[in-house]
Amino acid sequence: MTAVDPVPGEAGSIADPRSYASGAFDDHRPPDAALLGDCVHCGFCLPTCPTYVLWGEEMDSPRGRLYLMKEGLDGAPLDDAMVEHWDNCLGCMSCVTACPSGVRYDTLIEQTRAQVERHHERPMREKALRGLVFALFPHPGRLRLLRGPIRALQRTGLDRALRRRVTKPGGLLERMAPHLAAMERLTPPLQPAERMPARIPAQGTRRATVAMITGCVQDAFFPEVNAATARVLAAEGCEVVVPAHQGCCGALSVHNGREEEAQRYARAMIDTFEKADAAHGLDGVDYVVINAAGCGSTLKDYTRLLADDPAYASRAAAFQGKVRDIAEVLDELGPAAERHPLPLTVAYHDACHLAHAQGVRAQPRRLLAGIPGLEVREIADPEICCGSAGVYSILHPEAAAELGRRKAAAIVDTGAEVLVTANPGCLLQVASSIPASADLGAHAMGMAHLVEVLDASIRGLAPDRLRSARSTDTS
Question: Are the CB atoms for 456 and 466 separated by under 8 Å?
Answer without folding.
Answer: yes
